[in-house]
Predict the structure.
Amino acid sequence: MPRQREEQPSHNRIPLERRDLLERMVRVAGERGGRLAVVGEPGVGKTTMLEALAGRLAQDRIVLMLRFDEGTTGPYAAVRALLRLVPDRVFRTLPVGYRAVLEQVLQTAPPGFADHRMLEAALRYLCNVLAAAHTVLILDDAHLADRESVDLMAPMFRPPHEAAGTVLIVARELDAGGPITSWKVVFTASQLAFLAPLSPAAVAGVLKDSELGGLSATDLNEIATESGGNPSWAIDLAITRLSGDDRTAASASRAVASTIRRIERLPPAVREVLAVTALMRGGTVEALFHVVGHAEDALAEGVALGVLSVKGHEVAVRTPLLRAAMSAMLSAQERRTLHAGLAESPLPAERRLEHRDDAVLPGPRPDLAEELRAASGRARRIGTTSNALRLAMRSVARSDGRSDAHVDRVLHAAELAGAHGDAALVRRLSATLDPAVLAPEQFDRIAVVSAEAIAQDLGVDALDRRLANARRSFESADVRASIIDVLRILWSSGGASDVARELEDRAAELPPEVAPNTLRAALEDLAFRLLDAGEGLSSEIIARSRAVESASGTLDLTLSAASIEATGAYQADDLGRSRPALTAFVRTAELLGAHPTTTRALAHAAIVEVLAGRVVQAASLLHEAEQHALRLVDPPAPLTRARGLFALTRNDRETLEEILTGWSSPAATIRGSLLVHGLAGIDAAWSENWTEARTELELALELAEAKGIVEPGRRLWIDIELARARVHLGDLDGAEHLARRLAALDESHRRPHAHGQSLRIRAMVAMQRGQQEESLRLAEDAVEELRRGGFAPEAARAQLDRAQLLLDAGRSGRARQVLADVAASRIHADDPRIAARTLRLTEAADTVDGRALLTAAETRVAQSAAAGRTNREIAAQLFVSVRTVETHLGNAYRKMGVRTRTQLALALNDLGQDDPGRGRGPGSGSGSAPGRNRDTGRHDDRTESP
């Protein structure tokens, strides 16, 4: 009997970057005669993909899934494995003779009969029956199937044979050799799918799902890099690292062991070239030939066999797994000998130094340590932070822990680890130092990065406890005590205003020449605390931070004045200031090779473009940020914020769900919850689910106020959507309260965005209170203010609010013109929910005919005015006074939602209803008031004051 299909991994357990391939596999399985060969290195996750596929297929389908291994040996072993899975109901439909032959195959190992033609006929008949039943045949590690089985079955699955109707999906290793060549004839080039290695973030996710506790962020990062994106090998590396014996990693890994067997099949000359290239970790052909002599043929054969790659003059091992397996095959002495040869090869000086380091026995080497420290400093200055950190760690390993230079090397490495976003490595390095014996200048260098690392890994509470313990070691007059006091304030959870005042007082006590790092951290935090408190972005603090930077010559971008200005300005509603500042900041971060800082800067730049309504530019910046984030284990918080805001704009449900249910670091508890409730609330408001919107946004507001965050940009601009929810649910006083707070920001700092949103809220409240004219005036002013601030999407939403208010006031014609402006804008095309709301309001406006609202007298006056008569002519014609004509005409304008006689004529003839743009002068745009000259603001049409 076939085995029961086991519970399979769910779709959600497949990394996001592989779900497109899984969907392709499902589509192929749904086609008659579907074919797909999933190709990848050992351990890359082929089995997981096949199991996920089996779990996605309908339970009424016949799914035969075979997994071959090294033990599947002997002639026709694969055939026997297949026969064991065939359901009895299918087996009983076979003719008696064929069934007897196949039963003999099952009972005999190896088959004890000589008539293989009879076996082929019986198997072909069975495969035809399976094809007719739309069977899905899934073969895992197909390259391990015995040759006799493959040679027998593979031709049956090729047209014109009936068995070609069977769905065949196989997984195999890259260039595995053996009988796999027979399977190749079944698949065309378009039916091959390469299963690429996972990104570091996805590998970290696999390790977390495997419940391997005790791994730090540094461990995760190192394992993700070392494994080259191979999840099976990553798990093996994690297990051996937790055991404390990294030397057994290769021998314990099935993926490495499988790759070693592949290497053992290579010609000796190719193995020699592969060994040198593996230790070289990428280099030039000239350097390779310097060690092995001219081995052009071996190199060419290695490329042909898929173990080496050559691009121009560069040569490299195809995968990290191949490199690790080859290194594991070499003895320690063999590795040192090859490294010694590479140290003399024509490689860059930095690479030769590393090979010289690897060529000698482990242990302190002061001369080598100093060379490595100097090389790390040079790498840092030219912007290769990852190279600088690697060299710095080598320098620390070669240092004598009792020497004075050792402390400087550890501090240097810790600073680089902090810039690289490696919190656990910072903690590991700082743990080797005794704070009590560090000079104040040295203490300042380690204190800031250590505090950041502890908060990130363990949380703010754990940091405060450690700082409190450290504080007891120093007298109050000691600068180191002041540094600790400032850090405790900096990481405290009090209200923004209170903390800012205390921080400013204590920071003033720090001597800039002794504690520049702590002072810069304090100034950076102070700038954003004041911003939180609604006091705007302080130019004075930015100038002070820039002066400290200049005097100290520090290279840390995270705490720089440029960072404060670039990332803070847009959160104070100044998009125009942030955009050029962020452009320059991103360029600097990229030059310095600081991936965490670059990722954060690109994310902030993407947010600016989302707020400005430039969705294409935002998508490009967000993609760049995500590419940089692939090198990080934990993406920075601004990237999550950027993804959330972009997903809101595009109404991307999958991404929103991922963010709202995702994980945040211990250091981001309040901010993370604020982001989640804020995004959920805005999402509900834009979908006009007002009850849910108010619940989520009130929670977000409560969290923000607990931290003293008054600035709307620092709490995700939730104020306007919370106010709209309050208005819709009848809480007009609550909405007005938010409007007054926004107006107060504008009074202090001249903020068009805050002012515009305040006017927008007041307009909605005024309409609910029956103040119709006041409401419409405020709504029009709100749109102009928001446009002036550069917040195009918010201006469009304000336009839609204004259109709704016009409809409520019975001015459908003017509402249609406002909606036409929105429909013609870029925002309408980029935001599905703005487009949907525009359509709904347009349909509502079209159902209201302003002509029906006119009295008989107003209709006569309007028709005469539309015919081109002046007010005096109309008065004479109708035997009324000019003032009466003016009154009736004014009422007609208001009820029809128009401003000029041309618009009135179009509306009376039902032309303005379907095409609000008609009647505008040449060159008039969607943003200008209908009927007005854009340059002068004067009416172009013939009008008189009604």
